[in-house]
């Protein structure tokens, strides 16, 4: 949640699968293991998967295939993993909309909580609400004042209807007692382009999407949605500091397995993946470039976090009647 600065990473890692080492091949259930990324190539989840691909392959002794199986906000690829045999050969790496999908997509072919076992909680990153430098919005108070003066006149872009960014703006609008006009896009790139061009008043995007353009001067950050300020834009206040105590919204990344995957297999996969993320090259890319706060929590921590995300954003989606495009 959400693109990374990724050009140099992708040049060296886009081809998959990589050749597997032979030394530890017998210690893993299969010679080939899939990590399904249910989004298009070059998104933040895809880049994380490819960052760890080579090292994870060495540690497990299996050929790692990164399979981009995009469609319907990640639900196509998620369904494929949910229906896969629970034998350690298929894994799912998701983004934050995983928690909102059950509420904005009717009749999903899987149960988010019952058909998938949590494995690893990778980390979180706040959202940033930004604007074109020539727009008049320098603070959240400016946005609210303009929206109260002219209801529906202030527009904001998101990566799509039913995304966490969209739901966060809906919740903030409700708490502020204003009406904003949502302009959904199919991904961060198109939304960013129109925000930079000034075609929309605001953009809600993850730190990974927003900070490079803020640093370049193409956008001005108005407010961020974390509990505390992100170091890269430490001068920008949080929503909580701006009159809405307790308001938080996060992009996040996690790994799941088909329900019933043996604990020994899931445990080893999670442990080896954790070691890969802790590797200096990967950790620096995630924390410095993306401003991700690494959690590296186990199954129960991820289960608890996702349950809370589903509670919060599910309520917003239901109350406002929000559905995905």
Report on the structure:
The chain is α/β, with parallel strands linked by helices and 325 residues long. It has helices at 7-13, 44-60, 75-82, 101-104, 140-149, 164-176, 188-197, 207-215, 263-278, 280-289, 299-320, and strands at residues 32-37, 63-68, 90-94, 116-131, 155-158, 181-184, 202-206, 220-224, 250-258, 293-297. Strand 5, helix 6 (164-176) and strand 6 (181-184) form a beta-alpha-beta unit. Helix 2 packs across helix 9 and helix 6 (164-176) packs across helix 11. It is globular. The two termini are 18 Å apart. The relative contact order is 0.19.
Strand content: 15-25%
- Shape descriptor: globular
Amino-to-carboxy terminus distance = 18 Å
Number of strands: 10
Number of H/I helices? 11
Helix content: 25-40%
Main beta-sheet strand count, sense and barrel state: 10 strands, mixed
* Mean pLDDT across every amino acid position: 90
Which structural class is indicated by helix and strand composition? alpha/beta
User: Oligomeric status of the shown chains?
Assistant: single chain
Cα radius of gyration in angstroms:
20 Å
Please provide the ordered H/E string of secondary-structure elements: HEHEHEHEHEHEHEHEEHHEH
Q: Which regions are unreliable across 5 or more consecutive residues at pLDDT < 50?
A: 1-26
């Amino acid at each position: 949640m959400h693109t990374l600065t990724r050009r140099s990473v992708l040049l060296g890692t886009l081809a998959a699968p990589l050749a597997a080492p032979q030394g530890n091949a017998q210690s893993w259930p299969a010679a080939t293991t899939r990590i399904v990324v249910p989004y298009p190539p070059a998104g933040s989840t895809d880049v994380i998967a490819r960052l760890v691909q080579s090292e994870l392959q060495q540690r497990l002794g299996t050929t790692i295939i990164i399979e981009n199986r995009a469609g319907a906000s990640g639900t196509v690829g998620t369904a494929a993993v949910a229906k896969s045999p629970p034998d350690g050969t298929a894994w799912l790496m998701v983004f934050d909309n995983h928690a909102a999908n059950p509420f904005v997509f009717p009749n999903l072919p899987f149960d988010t909580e019952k058909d998938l076992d949590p494995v690893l909680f990778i980390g979180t990153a706040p959202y940033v609400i930004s604007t074109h430098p020539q727009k008049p919005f320098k603070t959240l108070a400016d946005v609210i004042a303009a929206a109260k003066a002219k209801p529906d006149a202030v527009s904001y872009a998101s990566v799509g209807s039913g995304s966490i960014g969209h739901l966060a703006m809906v919740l903030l609008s409700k708490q502020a007692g204003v009406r904003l006009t949502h302009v959904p896009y199919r991904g961060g790139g198109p939304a960013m382009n129109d925000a930079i061009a000034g075609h929309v008043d605001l953009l809600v995007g993850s730190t990974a999407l927003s900070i490079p353009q803020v640093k370049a001067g193409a956008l001005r950050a108005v407010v961020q949605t974390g509990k505390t300020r992100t170091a890269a834009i430490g001068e920008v206040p949080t929503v909580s500091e701006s009159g809405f105590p307790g308001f938080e919204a996060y992009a996040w990344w996690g790994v799941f397995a088909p329900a019933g995957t043996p604990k020994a297999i899931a445990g080893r996969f999670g442990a080896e993946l954790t070691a890969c993320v802790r590797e200096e090259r990967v950790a620096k890319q995630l924390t410095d470039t993306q401003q991700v706060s690494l959690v590296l929590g186990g199954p129960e921590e991820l289960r608890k976090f996702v349950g809370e995300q589903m509670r919060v954003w599910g309520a917003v989606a239901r109350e406002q009647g929000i559905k995905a495009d």
